[in-house]
Amino acid sequence: MTLANRFExxxxxxxxxxxxxxxxxxxxxxxxxVGASGIAQAKSAKRESADDRGRLTAKAIESLLARxxxxxxxxxxxxxxxxxxxxxxxxxxxxxIAPAVAQNFQLDSIDGKPICAVGTAIDSxxxxxxxxxxxxxxxxxxxxxxxxxxxVIGGMATDVVGVxxxxxxxxxAGTRIDALTIRDDENHFMIAVxxxxxxxxxxxxxxxxxxxxxxxxxxxxxxxxxxxxxxxLLLPVLMWVAAALITWxxxxxxxxxxxxxxxxxxxxxxxxxxxxxxxxRLGPSxxxxxxxxxxxxxxxxxxxxxxxxxxxxxxxxxxxxxxHHRVKNNLQVVASLLNIHGRSAESIExxxxxxxxxxxxxxxxxxxxxxxxxxxxSRGIALRPLLSELxxxxxxxxxxxxxxxxxxxxxxxxxxxxxxxxxxxxLVTEIVEFAMLNFPSDPVxxxxxxxxxxxxxxxxxxxxxxxxxxxxxxxxQFERIVAGLAKQLRSAxxxxxxxYSVELPVFPPGx
Length: 511
Description:
By secondary structure, this protein is α+β, with helices and mostly antiparallel strands. The protein is built from 11 helices and 16 strands.
């Protein structure tokens, strides 16, 4: 086996490691020669000097914050203890005798509601609540300030230390710094103390303030190097650029370009419309080729699973359709048997009982028929065709003396569940049957109006719905039945003279 074949069998990480090792070997030799002890010591001294300046500046800012926090905590404790009214004025008078203390603060209640504010206040609602004795420091980039929230007895105090006060504290430290940025975990703002000259580079260091809730990032100018030092430093930079360029080319060639080709092929793939066409050649990277093969296998398994799920879903739909169809047919058979037995009954009461039962079985059959029709669209049962069909069924089953009964429908196009539709069908059947047996010449009005996105009101009107007849035995039984049906709709039955109505749940429009 040749050396080239062995190299191609190596993983991509090993190939890059070998190539970069060979390329970076001259850089290592050059850095060893450049890293003379004199330059290293000079850089170390400069860094220590910059660290000392940064440390002093951070201490000055920390002292400013501590002084403001202590003064405001003492003033706020006394001010809030004497009541909310005039609390800020009392605290301001206490702070006026404290030297070099900011006069921008806000007092809040224990639950974070503002009590009052003095000076440039901030929206303290974004700050966390703190317990008495605790302190929280955060950066407010919009106001370019540091907010110090302290827990005091009976509330909280928030001190706002602005950018000018921070700049003054940094300058009073007596050190020369050129850039200062204050940040916390989320926000930051910059304080330009002494802008560097054109081409001047800065060294940055970070210093925690207080308990580390706020960080001061301090930049100081680098001391100019002599021309020989610049030349010595330029050589490693040029070699680093060359190494970075070579690395970029290698990574692009071996990784980025094959991955982009694979990504385009995957993006162009549309399940069910196009075939997955993955590139045959994806460079020397064995891992990317294995990724391509794994993705192809995964897509194949997904297609097989989707086919199985589609077949199972279709079988389930057929089974449900068959069940509903059989239930509807069985109900129709039961209704036909009841009609046959009713016609052969000897007494009028028996025939009436058979016909009444047949009407209720017919109402349930109407619900199943409409559910079967709407099942494919999964939007529930449409009440308009259901009530129209139910009215026709009731008129057809009316006794001879009630053949002239008219049922007036005024129904909105709404949909609901099967359970609600069953209760509605039985409720309408009970009321219409009671009307046709007691006032066959009086029309029955059925209206259904949407009252909100999720509710509608069903109302039925007839002269038979008269509270004066509540003492009649038939009316008592009738009222018990319709009240029970209204409870199935989880709504109270509203009774008025000649009109009953009930609220029922429906699906939102367009569902």
